Amino acid sequence: MPTMSKEETASYIKHHLTVSGRSDPLFSDDAVDLIHLTSRGLPRSVNNIALQSLIAAFADEKSIVDESSTRLAITETHTTE
Q1: Which InterPro entries does this chain map to (predicted)?
Q2: What residue spans define the domains of the chain?
Q3: CATH class (in words) of the domain with range 6-77
Q4: In terms of Cα–Cα distance, which of 49, 44, 46 is closest to 7?
Q5: What pLDDT digit, counting tens, does each position of 16-44 carry?
Q6: Which of 7, 22, 34, 37 is buried most deeply by CB count within 10 Å?
Q7: Binning pLDDT at 50, 70 and 90, where does residue 76 land?
Q8: What's the sign of the alpha-carbon dihedral 35, 36, 42, 46?
Q9: Residue 44 and residue 26: Cα distance in Å, rounded?
């Protein structure tokens, strides 16, 4: 399966948020960059990391998923996909 570029990963995340009813940004640019880097642009991995990042941000009562939430999600899930 071909991987997504950084721009495609950002669009992919934005599309999923739009479909779910979110119109304003939810992930910081740094978080999206880290998701792309860690996932290597693989859609399944992007989904998994983004979901865990959302959970981490919610647990910390943050309104935006930032890089620290994403780092925590990656550390806790030991993502190696």
Answers
A1: ExeA_AAA_ATPase_DNA-bind, P-loop_NTPase
A2: 6-77
A3: mainly alpha
A4: 46
A5: 999 999 999 999 999 999 999 999 999 99
A6: 34
A7: confident
A8: positive
A9: 19
Check: pTM over 0.85? Answer yes or no: yes
C-alpha 35/C-alpha 52 separation (Å) is: 11
Distance CA 31, CA 9 (A): 11
| pLDDT recorded at residue 2 | 86
User: 81 is written with which tokens?
Assistant: 């996909």
3-state secondary structure of 19: helix
Write out the two tokens for 54: 């959302």
Give the C-alpha separation, 73 to 68, whole Å. 9
DSSP 5: P
